[in-house]
Give the backbone structure.
Amino acid sequence: MTDSLQHLVRNDNLRLAYRVVHGVHPTVVWLGGFYSDMTGTKAQVLADQAKATGGAYLRFDYFGHGESDGAFEDGTISRWREDALAVIDDLTEGPLVLVGSSMGGWLACLAAIARPDRVKALVLIAPAPDFTEKLMEPELSAEAKAAIARDGRWIRPSEYDDGGYAITRALLEDGARWSILPGPVPIDVPVRVLQGGADPDVPWTHALELANGLSSDDVVFTLVKDGDHRLSRPQDLERLVAAVAEARILAEPVDDDPVARRLARAARARAAGQAPATAWAAADMGPEEEWGA
């Protein structure tokens, strides 16, 4: 087990920073948000949970984010999607649970579409698919749009960075290439969505549009009425840990004895601290089946 900083060298010799906890499959892969990094609260909580439970876990920084190489303003959805796929292909084996926050929810969906044989479940926190076109661009002022048209970039003020960060023409134009809404979104695995009702950045209706657009029937949308965009309060983190634990169980392959396998799933869910009803739901069966009724 390790969680030390490591680097994956991409084809252009630029490095992606990552940290890995070795453990039992399926591997949980964290995909962070726009202008965030892998040291955030939610990513760290999942790392701690993986260490405590023996599960495999990988988190990384996209090009131009955190401890990875590259200039943030040179990044695009295409580049960050390629980063996610490179991490999946080069650093993981076996079944995966992708956990995406905000922009990471969009990239998790794009990765699931590109690697349907690997991705077995998704947990999405305030997912922001198509945010460049549907959330970011409509909010730009006339001054910002003029700067982007004239200079190819505009510096957006940020409460998290005194210097702000660049919104570029390349980001907006490239983002439109990867639009997945209104769907159908060809993802047929279990999906759990956690969304704040008081999120100022991603309206809950936007996340719900994604949930409704997914091909999968196994989609649970949880609206935290007083929750913000980050969903990093203790009670929010508890929901995240529970959702990831359920997703890991659902991502396990079902062998030739599905009843036995699902009983084992339910037992592990109960051992992980889930309530009986949640454990049976994770096992996709009713409690009476335990006794052969």
Summary: The CA atoms of residues 150 and 157 lie 19 Å apart. Residues 258-293 form one domain. Residues 234-251 form the longest helix (18 residues).
